[in-house]
Amino acid sequence: MPSGTEAESEISMQFTSFGTSDTGRHRKHNEDSYLCNPKEKLFLLADGLGGQPSGETASNLAIRSIEQFVIHSRSEDITWPIPYRKELSLGQNRLLAGATLANYRIRELANQSPSMKGMGTTLVGAIIDGDHLAIINIGDSRLYRIRNGQIEQITQDHTLVAEQERVGLLSKEEASNHPRKHILTSSLGIGVIKDIRMDTSLIEILKKDLYLMCSDGLNDMIGDKEILTTINFFENKSLDKIGLSLIQQANLAGGRDNITIILLFF
Questions:
Q1: CB neighbourhood size of 89 (10 A)
Q2: CATH number of the domain to which 88 belongs
Q3: Among 102, 141, 157, 241, which one is least packed by beta carbons within 10 Å?
Q4: Comparing C-alpha atoms, which of 167, 260, 246 is closest to residue 216?
Q5: Cβ neighbourhood burial of 114 (10 Å; 0-12, 13-18, 19+)
């Protein structure tokens, strides 16, 4: 850890977690990767780009690179790939640095292997940072918060269509049905780090909050209202039942892509 940086909060929220992934009904391979590491309070989800095996390689490399950095960043001996930003929390800094390292490693591997050229991955990740959640996202994998029976998308999609919706050029309905809605404006591995948009935020956790991280294989098949209905159906917040039910619904709706889900309940 860089000298003079803040220590992690001693406040620790109790939580349960669950993660699962499914190939879907149309894909032969699963290019999504995910990590649930409760010990490190680290949760990551990546949706690979570039086709099998490149997409799977990119998403897996991103997950492993970030996990390794987060674990080793507890040591003062580690070299950080970017300067520590004092205006951000330790969790946010770890996620940004880990993603920077992941981008470098994906690009390095792609440059060494012609078969891997053009590979990349989305990323959504979170670290429990005391009584807050530090979040990062690159691409269109999402993080939702379910609080008091309501669902809210916390992350913003980095896609051409989403950017047009945000500036008022498209309505929400037009954006959701747009044939080019999957054209990304940011992803790991595709560009140099200065060209990659990495959003990070720090949000307060309240008791009974539930957070859902997912690849677009879920939200492309079922809408936010359907996701919320499924979550609210399981009043005891049985995460495995919620996760498997969401996977089943996405497949019943078509299952056109890989479907990956991480759930966190406080």
A1: 22
A2: 3.60.40.10
A3: 241
A4: 260
A5: exposed
Q: Is the pLDDT of residue 93 over 90?
A: yes
pLDDT of res. 183: 86
pTM: 0.91
What confidence tens digit (pLDDT) does each residue in 170-209 have? 777 777 777 677 889 999 998 666 678 999 999 999 999 9
Q: Half-sphere exposure of residue 118, counting CA atoms within 13 Å on the CB side?
A: 6
Flag whether 2 is in a domain: no
Mean pLDDT to the nearest integer, 240-247: 97
Looking at 75-79, 134-138, 213-217, which range is the least confident one? 75-79
Q: How many domains does the chain have?
A: 1
In this structure, which amino acid lies at residue 149? G
> Does the pLDDT value for residue 261 go beyond 80?
yes
